[in-house]
Amino acid sequence: MNTYAHITQNRLRSALLILLFPITFAVTLAVMLAVLMNVFGVDLNSLSTVCGPSGTDCAYVSRWEVIGVIMLRLVPGLWLLALGWIFASYYLGDFLIMVSVNATKVTSNNHPDLYHLVENLAITRGLPTPTIYLINDDSLNAFATGRNPQHAAIVFTKGLVENLERVELEGVAAHELAHIENYDTRLMLLAVAGISFFTLAGEICLNLAAASFRSRPNMKSHILLFVLGGGLFIYGYVIAPLIRLALSRQREYQADALAALTTRHPQALANALKKISKNCYTKAFCRSHSVSSLCIACPLPREGLLEMLSGIFTTHPPIRERVARLEQMNL
Q1: Candidates 168, 170, 176, 181; catalytic one
Q2: Residues 236, 24 contacting (CB under 8 angstroms)
Q3: Which of 34, 175, 188, 282 meets the CB 3.0–4.6 Å disulfide criterion with 299?
Q4: Residue 303 designated active-site
Q5: Over the stretch 278-301, which tens digit does the pLDDT of each residue have?
Q6: Is 11:218 a contact under the CB 8 Å cutoff?
């Protein structure tokens, strides 16, 4: 697949992603409600009857109709909130990501070598020079973000800049510029925004459900909050990452190949990936797990359930396969 075809495909996937998130969440929530009501026998009597204006002439509503009522009440509001969150992230996402990882801006004054390295590569590809940031972390990692090449940023860890040779650092920078050129950054920014909305909203609903149960154990509002929170939580940590996985691991191979063509030195990027794989755990990302999909290598430790799930649903192909492909390139 050439670069232009990859860009067109990413633009189409960005549009489909916006539609796919609410549709799959509605299905997840409907399944959860059906299981609770039909398998576990949870009875929501307050929603099982429909009465006239005077409070009389009440009619019984079936369980499936109750599920439909709940879906019609909850999903449109959540969809509007999710849309607002995604569009806010679209325009402010790169800024919020920099704040979350405590990144500092690189200029030609404070880090001239790094700045001019990225600037020269950007000129080679005919791209605007992205904003460059540095994270004060000894690990070896990097990522790019932004909605388009005119509003993009590349982030390097201090360990990466200090431990890679210049030609290896050029390979990493060219890889991240390839993501910007291919609009991978826009696609993943939307994915990160969607996933972060569902996980955050799930945590809020579960906390509200717990508080509601403690204060009024006989009320049924905590059941709905629990169902909603559980659906959001499961969706954000299991189903949405599957959608992100479906966005294709091919984007990493594509970025590696374009980086090799830019620098004319595929072995340099292969050597950089080998070094990165030995020390890619980045502390800054422990507070922002969803950003890990943006990195050149997964920065999370493989400990605990959520980290294990992150490893299963990673969008990155194994580094050994990426290295093998680079070493086979003959430029």
Answers
A1: 176
A2: no
A3: 282
A4: no
A5: 988 877 776 666 677 788 887 876
A6: no
